[in-house]
User: Fold this.
Amino acid sequence: GENVEQHPSTLSVQEGDSAVIKCTYSDSASNYFPWYKQELGKGPQLIIDIRSNVGEKKDQRIAVTLNKTAKHFSLHITETQPEDSAVYFCAAAGPGGSYIPTFGRGTSLIVHP
Amino acid sequence: DAGVIQSPRHEVTEMGQEVTLRCKPISGHNSLFWYRQTMMRGLELLIYFNNNVPIDDSGMPEDRFSAKMPNASFSTLKIQPSEPRDSAVYFCASSPGAFGNTIYFGEGSWLTVV
Assistant:
């Protein structure tokens, strides 16, 4: 089955800095890569996703890049704000019988004012 | 849209007691998932249903866990008997079902077994 590794487990930045979270996956058939944000006491919510037919996708201050050859993808948050503080999960999903995403272990992002 | 609704939000129970967690998926979604979240294991998929039918329950940790979906708008996850190691946050989630669709999570049920 799919295996998703996520790094770092904790990331601390100053407000206004950029934050980068990296994930690798094992199944070359995976072709859908969502990112979820989990705020304290809440369930994860989708913030951005990318499919394997594109290498990069942006939505305001967040962007995701995908390198299918190397089987890794990254989340980039620019101009971080305190409200970006949360746990971020990457995931990978593919065809071939199971479209259910496999989640990474999560990255706790702390943005210091 | 009310989102995925879970109950109870918090439960504290004694070891050996039966625990029932409830979920109402988003109307029109035909896939439903139960996840467990702990510090040690992260987000684990326990079971998922498609059109009310259990498709994969390989994530259910042991026979003490069972899940049902009697209709499209209701599902339960039951633990009997409960043990302290079952303490975790249990999330229900739903999805329209087709590949690449967003999975929508509920707010979670925080379970503590003492």
